[in-house]
Design goal:
Structural class: mainly beta
Strand order of the largest sheet: 1-13-12-11-10-17-8-5
Radius of gyration: 18 Å
CATH class: Mainly Beta
Number of domains: 1
CATH architecture: Sandwich
Shape: globular
Strand content: 35-45%
Helix content: under 10%
Distance between the termini: 40 Å
Number of strands: 18
CATH topology: Jelly Rolls
Length: about 300
Amino acid sequence: MRRMIMLFAGGISFASAEGDPKGEGNQAAKKELPEGMGIAAKFPGDTGIAKHPAVIFADNFEKGELAAKWDEARNKKTVLSLAKVPGGPVGEKSLKVEARLGKDTGGGMTKWFDPTPKLFVRFYTRFDAKCDYVHHFVTLRANKSLQGSDRWSGFGGAGLKPKGADRFSTALEPWGDWGRNVAPGKWNFYSYWHEMSAAPDKKYWGNGFRPAKQANIKKDKWICCEFMLKENTPGKRDGEQAFWIDGKLRGHWKGINWRRSPTLHANALTVEAYVTDRWTKNPVNVVFFDNVVISKEYVGPSGN
């Protein structure tokens, strides 16, 4: 279940956590955020991009064993694999996630990292021609710390409202609109934070942020996805999030009060295809990922 809070302005969507009708000013935001090529333009195929001072983590799946650079892997032996995909963005290998209804819910990998106030996450993805709806996708989570059980505080909690010192999260996902969008759907932020709104059932499912108009996601095509999260100053609504598709800014939202605590930071990234039987009918659903980068600066499409 998803509930959306947003305002549309000049083709870019803006919303505060309270649905500010003034919308923060579209033209100013356009100037604040880059588009097109970013730091990746200097690294053909992302080769060597991990050495850039702004890059926190990078994996193009070309070297080493599956999930070697990641801290956790779900269903690694049965769902995840490295595959050669024709027409890939760069290189020869990509991460393949094969979810099978009735047998599993897909799988993925998680990386914990030292936080920074403003994060950019860039990845490539490709939906197989027969892929149906995907329930959850690529999620950035805030945990209490990187130590012990606190590193898991941002996981779980579906239907519950965060308290502001325990967790917040945002995920860039394909949104099926309860089966009304053509699968896999349209791009959408699915976010949890302590000022989120309740759903009609009085529970707290992720609030949605998405542009007023956008095309359905195309299958059998590599897509460069990137999203940004800016933490708020505790006590202020100065947090932000935005996303780009193939280097084009699709949405930018400001005035978000992500957290109450100065020690709560976004510090974990999960890349997965989590599939359930809610609106999904195809027995096998395949999604590919490649060239994942976590950075302090805008990354942009991979250089050629």
